[in-house]
Amino acid sequence: MTLIARTRARAVETLSLDSPHNRNALSAALVGELAGALTDAGKDTGVRAIVLTHTGNTFSAGADLKDPPPPEALVALLRQIIELPKPVVARVTGHVRAGGLGLLAACDIAAASTEATFAFTEVRIGVAPAVISLPLLPRTNPRALARHYLTGERFDAAEAVATGLLTTCDSDVDRLLGPILEGLRRSAPDALAETKRLLTARVLEAFDRDADALTALSARLFSSPQAREGMTAFLERRDAAWVV
Fold first, then answer.
1. pLDDT band with cut points at 50, 70 and 90 for residue 65
2. Domains and CATH numbers, the chain
3. Is 7 exposed, middle or buried (0-12, 13-18, 19+ CB in 10 A)?
4. What are the residues whose beta carbons fall under 8 Å from the beta carbon of 26, sequence distance 6 or more?
5. Residue 11 backbone zone (phi > 0: left; psi -120 to 50: alpha; other: beta)
6. Is 31:67 a contact under the CB 8 Å cutoff?
7. Which residues lie below 8 Å from residue 129, measured CB to CB, with a gap of 6+?
8. Tell me, what's the pLDDT at 9?
């Protein structure tokens, strides 16, 4: 079963997360297939830019609790998006949770519909947004992000723009993307690659400095008793034992 749909129009490759049965959760299989699609697009001289989007009403529900990717695989995917020599633009028309927010942060430009919602739900299942902090912390407002990290509250697209998670939002996300993609098509490929390197230098410093420690933290938390209780409670649709 193919989990990533690919289409192309005027040198823009669109990669769609296409696993709506589990709300495009980041399974080991989906992460691997997306990494392969990004590799192909990065090598293809006919591709000027990449749009990362989704089928269904959810961009991504975060890690697949039944088939999660190893933390190292998610780190590698996020770094791949950042290091790709072509701009990656996120197009979001649905909900984004937990690890899916790491994908948004790794993209160079992120545009969403005003109907989209967002939440860092990790703390509610007994873990932390560890690995996805690598692209998130260098690119977002730390005071605004603290509330969302610590409470797991749902927030809207306007708040996501204010936080720095999104570039822009509108009731019609494709109206936003039209001029963005046209601008990328009119830009020289080598100039785009060098400009992207300027923009991502600080983010890659965070990967070089913190990736090993955050990978270890993620693995430790996911194997903890609180995480087992939190994930079980989530799957059983009940409150975790610590809820007061």
1. confident
2. 4-175 (3.90.226.10)
3. exposed
4. 60, 62, 63, 64, 68, 69, 74, 99, 100
5. left
6. no
7. 98, 101, 102, 120, 122, 136, 149
8. 97
CA distance 25 to 97: 9
Integer Cα distance of 184 and 11 in angstroms:
10
Alpha-helix runs per DSSP H in the chain? 28-43, 71-83, 99-106, 133-139, 142-151, 157-163, 173-185, 189-222, 225-235
pLDDT tens digits, 120-177 = 999 999 999 999 999 999 999 999 999 999 999 999 999 999 999 999 999 999 999 9
**pLDDT reported for residue 1:** 81
> What is the structure's pLDDT at 166?
98
Taking alpha carbons only, the member of 45, 85, 48 closest to residue 185 is: 48
* Single pTM value for the model: 0.96
Q: Please enumerate in sequence order all residues whose Cβ is within 8 A of that of 36, keeping only pairs 6 or more positions apart, or say none.
A: none
As given in the structure block, the two tokens for residue 34 are: 């997306």
Q: Which two tokens stand for residue 223?
A: 């194997």
pLDDT tens by residue, 207-217: 999 999 999 99
31 CA to centre of own chain: 11
